[in-house]
């Protein structure tokens, strides 16, 4: 089987590399000439653990190719995946589908023989119908089916998610299309992965419903964390106590500065807009979006409060700026709200992130970027942990204390334990737990 993957962003590149690992011949297509040249040199444009080796192995084995020639790639393919971006549209929050529809028209012009056209991008309900209309209008003679096959990849563990998924969702209208997709995912039958076949419209909604539910779960525990701080309770114990209930589950119950990334912010907003237009508003998700936006800004106030109510003229050491560890993705990261607010309040910022600084420096001007975590700390008035990279979990606390001007540590990810930090001499502020002053 041969497939074409249109788009070499996060979803397209990971999916293409993983399909090639299954033994499928994959051609990844992108209009960005420099990106394709880099990929052909073995350079990976995104940070994802293990992806470089996967791409290298499949390319050497002759199963994975990169090109700007969409026409040739599509003409040879049994299935063509659309994996282009669907960012939030300016002004109304809807998903911008211009890249999807543009790809559909180009694919139509290149089709040769029966082909399944698969939307892998996250798209609102009804997109599949429109893709089908565009292809039919462009090529009335084309023999094709349109299928929805949403991705459920978590940045930082995307390869594992693809190879050992909880489920695969496939929305298709014909048995011929379903059979081709069964053959494509046949390797996952060996590990008894549930394959959920639905209508195209249902498949499109499943993706949005999944992401918005998880965003709601994160927002719920963040609000509970605020309540815990007021009542003197421990949000970690609350999360454990409710997470052991099988109906709730323990995942996505870790408090923090709010959700970010390439999916949750834009998908919650897109589903809100879709529901409003359909006359069935999702009031819970509307509130989730509002709370999350306000929470990010509130984290700057939390840091300022921990610094005595003012950061004017103070230097803050910042650890982590990406929206989560094991990625260089800065999209909608809480740091994009927190750090400018601290700068506006008069703080000087020194920051370090293991993978995200190249992207971050384009979006966060006026920050001194450091080579190591400890380099940020010399003479700083406070240390702030925004992203819980593993290398921040076991800092040399004696060294940290000796470098800081004052022993203020604000931990927005609850990496450390309050008692331990107080005993180590830190004025420790965390999320959803009792913050403690240093033990003198």
Describe the structure.
The protein has 440 residues and is of the alpha/beta class. The protein contains 17 helices and 14 strands. A six-stranded parallel β-sheet has the order 3-2-1-4-5-6, sandwiched between helices. A six-stranded parallel β-sheet has the order 11-10-9-12-13-14. A two-stranded parallel sheet has the order 7-8. Strand 12, helix 16 and strand 13 form a beta-alpha-beta unit. The mean pLDDT is 96.
Gross geometry:
elongated
Task: Tell me what portion of residues adopts beta-strand conformation.
Answer: 5-15%
Described by its quaternary structure, the protein is: single chain
Number of H- or I-type helical stretches: 17
Order of strands side by side in the largest beta sheet? 3-2-1-4-5-6
List keywords for this structure.
single chain, 440 residues, alpha/beta, 6-stranded parallel beta sheet, 17 helices, elongated
Short synopsis of the structure:
By secondary structure, the chain is an alpha/beta fold. The protein is 43% helix and 13% strand.
